[in-house]
């Protein structure tokens, strides 16, 4: 019985040993793989740490650069603001200086104009007498009164400076300002009325000119070349329409072919007028009598005619 039991025990031990050896080899392989994985993981982690460190360094560097750039831009803005304010002050100073110079120049020209007007208050013409005692006015400009265009312009500016008064509102209270506004409104109303009157007068004169020109044109159309005393108007170019563009066109009621010209002479017209002005003779009354009255009268008239 013992021999039969020991026979199968040896293969079982060998199988167990083989399984244990395989298990040991597997464990060693797993340990080796784990060690390799840990080594690889350490390398990757070190690499990631290095990359993170580089990123942190770059971020810190960007922060420093951004701070430097912000500081530089702030300095530039401050310098630009200071420069702009300085230029604004210089421009205001130049403007005030130029305004002061113009004011002084206007005042100087006004004084010169006043002095010139005071010195030149005398007539610029001479009255000469004829041999028969009549008077003739011959305007002769003196040399000191012959002014250039610049002098006339200066006089114009001086007169405008005298007429246009400055609006002084310093020291006025509410009542004074209200009264000043009322005065200005009344003056403006008066000027607007004068402007309206002048415009209306200009329109009436323009209409009269158009009417007179149209009458002259219609008179010359019928006369043609026979009239030597008529007004000659160039029909090729309408000067009136070119001058008064806003004027309405002429309304032609009838055709020009319906107009007839009277070609009779003055004597024929006078004779016709005298014939119409002569008194007409009274109408002849013929009486017809009864019986032989009319016959006797006819016989008597016939005998008288025969005698």
Polypeptide structure, described:
This is Troponin T, fast skeletal muscle. The chain starts with a helix and ends with a helix. It has about 300 residues and is mainly alpha-helical. The protein has helices spanning about 1-5, 10-120, 150-165, 175-225, 240-245, 265-275, 295-305, and strands at about 125-130, 135-140. Strand 1 (about 125-130) and strand 2 (about 135-140) form a beta hairpin. Among the domains are: about 10-120; about 175-255, no CATH class.
Quick description:
The protein has 307 residues and is mainly alpha-helical. It has seven helices and two strands, in the order ααββααααα. It holds the Pfam family Troponin.
Key words describing this protein structure:
mainly alpha; tropomyosin binding; disordered N terminus; Troponin T, fast skeletal muscle; Troponin; 307 residues; 7 helices; Troponin_sf; disordered C terminus
Strand arrangement within the widest β-sheet reads: 1-2
User: Helix-strand pattern, N to C?
Assistant: HHEEHHHHH
Radius of gyration: 64 Å
- DSSP strand tally: 2
Mean pLDDT: 76
Instruction: List the quaternary state of the chains.
Output: single chain
How is the biggest beta sheet arranged? 2 strands, antiparallel
Number of helices: 7
Low-confidence stretches: 1-7, 123-127, 129-138, 227-234, 291-307
Global outline: elongated
What is the terminal separation in angstroms? 230 Å
As a percent range, the share of strand residues is under 5%
Helix content: 55-70%
- Computed structural class: mainly alpha
């Amino acid at each position: 019985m013992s021999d039969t039991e020991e026979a199968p025990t040896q293969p079982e031990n060998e199988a167990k040993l083989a399984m244990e050896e395989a298990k040991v080899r597997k464990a060693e392989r797993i340990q080796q793989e784990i060690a390799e994985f840990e080594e690889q993981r350490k390398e990757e982690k070190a690499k990631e740490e290095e990359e993170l460190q580089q990123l942190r360094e770059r971020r810190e560097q960007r922060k420093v650069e951004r701070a430097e750039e912000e500081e530089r831009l702030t300095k530039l803005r401050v310098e630009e603001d200071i420069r702009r304010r300085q230029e604004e002050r210089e421009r205001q100073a130049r403007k005030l200086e130029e305004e002061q110079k113009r004011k002084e120049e206007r005042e100087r020209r006004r004084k010169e104009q006043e002095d010139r007007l005071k010195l030149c208050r005398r007539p610029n013409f001479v009255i000469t007498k004829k041999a028969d005692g009549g008077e003739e006015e011959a305007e002769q400009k003196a040399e000191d009164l012959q002014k250039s265009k610049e002098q006339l312009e200066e006089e114009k500016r001086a007169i405008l400076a005298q007429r246009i008064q400055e609006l002084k509102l310093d020291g006025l209270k509410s009542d004074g300002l209200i009264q000043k506004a009322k005065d200005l409104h009344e003056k403006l109303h008066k000027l607007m009325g004068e402007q309206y009157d002048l415009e209306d007068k200009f329109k009436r004169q323009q209409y009269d000119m158009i009417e007179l020109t149209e009458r002259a044109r219609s008179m010359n159309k019928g006369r043609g070349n026979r009239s030597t005393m008529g007004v000659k108007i160039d029909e090729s170019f309408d000067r009136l329409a070119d001058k008064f563009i806003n004027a309405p066109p002429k309304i032609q009621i009838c055709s020009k072919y319906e107009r007839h010209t009277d070609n009779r002479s003055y004597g024929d017209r006078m004779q016709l007028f005298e014939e119409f002005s002569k008194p007409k003779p009274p109408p002849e009354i013929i009486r017809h009598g009864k019986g032989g009255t009319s016959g006797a009268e006819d016989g008597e008239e016939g005998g008288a005619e025969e005698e």
